[in-house]
Amino acid sequence: MVRKLNPALAKPLNLSPELEAVIGPGPTPRTQVVKLMWEYIKKHDLQNPENRRNIFADDLLRPIFGKEEVTMFEMTKLVSGHLTDPDKK
């Protein structure tokens, strides 16, 4: 059985200025946002070496996370607050 991508995940969303500072200008689909966030985290070596599921915030991530360290699950939730649907007013 082949899984289809949920169309809601593929829809380009507007990014907050804070998120654009990390991953570049939008609109960008949610799936791509998460991928680009991980690229940034790995490029800047921001994973906690003792617990790789945790991510340290640098100066650009701190406004998105609101604290110094988050889990990868928290990251996804916090990033969602920086995405808006261009079709909704």
Primary descriptors:
5 helices; single chain; 6 strands; MDM2; alpha+beta; 89 residues; globular
Number of strands: 6
User: Helical stretch count?
Assistant: 5
Number of domains: 1
Whole-number mean pLDDT? 92
Inertia-based shape: globular
Oligomeric state as shown: single chain
**Main sheet overview:** 3 strands, antiparallel
* Helix/strand class: alpha+beta
**Which architecture does the CATH hierarchy give at level 2?**
Orthogonal Bundle
In brief:
With 89 residues, this protein is α+β, with helices and mostly antiparallel strands. The protein contains five helices and six strands. The termini are far apart.
Tell me about this structure.
By secondary structure, this protein is an alpha+beta fold. It has one domain: SWIB/MDM2 domain (MDM2, Orthogonal Bundle), CATH 1.10.245.10. It is 43% helix and 21% strand. It is built from five helices and six strands. It has a three-stranded antiparallel β-sheet. It has a three-stranded antiparallel β-sheet with strand order 3-4-5. The longest helix is centred in the middle third of the chain and has 14 residues.
Task: Give the secondary structure arrangement, pairings included.
Blueprint: H1 7-10, E1 12-15, H2 17-23, E2 28-29, H3 30-43, E3 47-48, E4 51-56, H4 62-65, E5 69-71, H5 72-80, E6 83-84
Antiparallel strand pairs: 1-2, 1-6, 3-4, 4-5
